[in-house]
């Protein structure tokens, strides 16, 4: 665990040194191809040069952290699935059989799962695959924000600090690129609440069907979020207040992963709607985190585009995905790694003996 305080972390985060972008652009200009012919792949590689402060960046060592938590708000009938699915899916992640496991294997990323506050309790010692399960259980699920704050402010801070510590351990172990993932039945509801509060968009614009609620379920979800915001009055200038009042433990954990990427100068690839809600909390605490972030994909959840716009991020992929778990971020890691390989491996005009234009 880290001895740093959250204010110390926020104060230490530095924006990218733009001189590295300039140096990297000079190298890109020498690659044996028409100017910037690989489009955004060049931008990605140059941003990675600036993040790692080198013209030889590496994204070979990759990990996805799937943050898991349950939600009191699930009792309001805002999800198409029951709460037990959270724990059952965490077992599936550990067994290697979920969507994220297949995509992470394809991307060459390890998958770590953190119990940030599930209703169920899994013992790492006795659960198959439990060596990849970490326990930072803040509480066995949040309180319902239909009745009061989802959690105490101290719990919100503890969730962020736990995420920061897990990411720090992975970076210390050599991870060069971190993907964020989530599991928690009903978590598109707090994510939409966070999105509405922090982007200023309406709850109607921000709220989608999640796992697939019907029209009545969607109307109920919008009403629950609208009433929950009116009851709790989260302060949009205070990311911790927003997380505490309408957030979730796994969303706080994701915010901690995002802060850790910026603090340790490592690329973080966020996934869909829930991961981006976590990034919004981190961004509210420290807008500079956006320099270190990559948006893995554009989720089908309609509010996701509004969240990404607020963060100033353009998604790498748009594949009609709406799963979460870190799947879109893990798939995008393959693009990121390819971009860096182009930067390092393509010959210059001089080396190839090709006449420059
Ligand atoms: C089997 C299954 C696997 C999942 N993996 C991710 N989610 C995703 O769906 C949930 C959010 O949607 P909502 O707010 O509608 O409950 C989260 O757990 C998210 O990670 C899943 C959901 C299910 C049912
Ligand atoms: O975009 C996501 O991450 C998402 C969308 C719906 C349900 N679960 C996750």
TrEMBL record:
What general EC class does the enzyme of this chain belong to? transferase
**What are the entry keywords?**
Cobalamin biosynthesis, Glycosyltransferase, Transferase
Catalytic activity, as annotated: 5,6-dimethylbenzimidazole + nicotinate beta-D-ribonucleotide = alpha-ribazole 5'-phosphate + nicotinate + H(+)
Q: In which pathway does it act?
A: Nucleoside biosynthesis; alpha-ribazole biosynthesis; alpha-ribazole from 5,6-dimethylbenzimidazole: step 1/2
Gene3D superfamilies per UniProt:
1.10.1610.10, 3.40.50.10210
* SUPFAM superfamilies (alphabetical): Nicotinate mononucleotide:5,6-dimethylbenzimidazole phosphoribosyltransferase (CobT)
* Annotated TM spans: none
- Whether ATP-binding counts among this entry's keywords is no
Q: Which GO terms describe its biological process?
A: cobalamin biosynthetic process
Question: Active site located where?
Answer: 325 (proton acceptor)
Could you name the domain of life of the organism this protein comes from? Bacteria
Q: Name one Pfam family in it.
A: DBI_PRT
InterPro entries cross-referenced by the UniProt entry: Nict_dMeBzImd_PRibTrfase, Nict_dMeBzImd_PRibTrfase_bact, Nict_dMeBzImd_PRibTrfase_N, Nict_dMeBzImd_PRibTrfase_sf
One GO MF term attached to the UniProt entry: nicotinate-nucleotide-dimethylbenzimidazole phosphoribosyltransferase activity
The EC number(s) given in the record are 2.4.2.21
Alphabetical list of NCBIfam families matching this protein: cobT_DBIPRT (TIGR03160), PRK00105.1 (NF000996)
Q: Which HAMAP family match?
A: CobT (MF_00230)
- Tell me, in a sentence or two, what this protein's role is: Catalyzes the synthesis of alpha-ribazole-5'-phosphate from nicotinate mononucleotide (NAMN) and 5,6-dimethylbenzimidazole (DMB).
PANTHER family given for it? NICOTINATE-NUCLEOTIDE--DIMETHYLBENZIMIDAZOLE PHOSPHORIBOSYLTRANSFERASE (PTHR43463:SF1)
Return the similarity comment: Belongs to the CobT family.
Q: What is this protein called?
A: Nicotinate-nucleotide--dimethylbenzimidazole phosphoribosyltransferase
Which species is listed as the source? Desulfatitalea alkaliphila
């Amino acid at each position: 665990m880290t001895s740093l305080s959250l204010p110390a972390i926020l104060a230490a985060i530095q924006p990218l040194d733009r001189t590295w972008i300039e140096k990297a652009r000079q190298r890109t200009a020498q690659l044996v191809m028409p100017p910037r012919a690989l489009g955004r792949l060049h931008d990605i590689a140059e941003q990675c040069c600036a993040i790692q402060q080198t013209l030889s960046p590496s994204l070979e060592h990759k990990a996805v952290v799937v943050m898991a938590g349950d939600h009191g708000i699930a009792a309001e009938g805002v999800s198409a699935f029951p709460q037990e699915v959270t724990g059952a899916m965490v077992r599936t992640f550990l067994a290697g059989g979920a969507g994220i496991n297949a995509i992470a294997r394809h991307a060459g990323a390890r998958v770590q799962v953190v119990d940030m506050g599930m209703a169920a309790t899994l013992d790492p010692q006795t659960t198959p695959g439990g060596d990849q399960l970490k326990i930072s259980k803040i509480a066995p699920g949040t309180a319902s924000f239909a009745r009061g704050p989802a959690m105490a402010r101290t719990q919100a801070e503890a969730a962020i600090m736990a995420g920061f510590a897990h990411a720090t351990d992975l970076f210390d172990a050599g991870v060069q690129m971190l993907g964020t993932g989530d599991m928690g039945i009903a978590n598109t509801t707090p994510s939409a609440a966070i999105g509405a509060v922090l982007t200023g968009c309406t709850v109607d614009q921000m709220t989608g069907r999640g796992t697939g609620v019907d029209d009545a379920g969607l109307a109920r979800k919008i009403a629950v979020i609208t009433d929950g915001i009116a009851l709790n009055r989260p302060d949009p200038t205070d990311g911790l207040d927003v997380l505490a009042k309408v957030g979730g433990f796994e969303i706080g954990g994701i915010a901690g992963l995002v802060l850790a990427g910026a603090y340790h100068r490592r690329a973080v690839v966020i996934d869909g709607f829930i991961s981006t809600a976590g990034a919004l909390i981190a961004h509210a605490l420290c807008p500079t985190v956006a320099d270190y972030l990559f948006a893995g994909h554009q989720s089908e959840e309609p509010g996701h585009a509004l969240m990404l716009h607020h963060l100033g991020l353009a998604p790498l992929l748009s594949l009609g995905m709406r799963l979460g778990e870190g799947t879109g971020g893990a798939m995008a890691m393959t693009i990121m790694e390819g971009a860096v390989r182009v930067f390092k491996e393509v010959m210059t005009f001089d080396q190839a003996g090709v006449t420059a234009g």
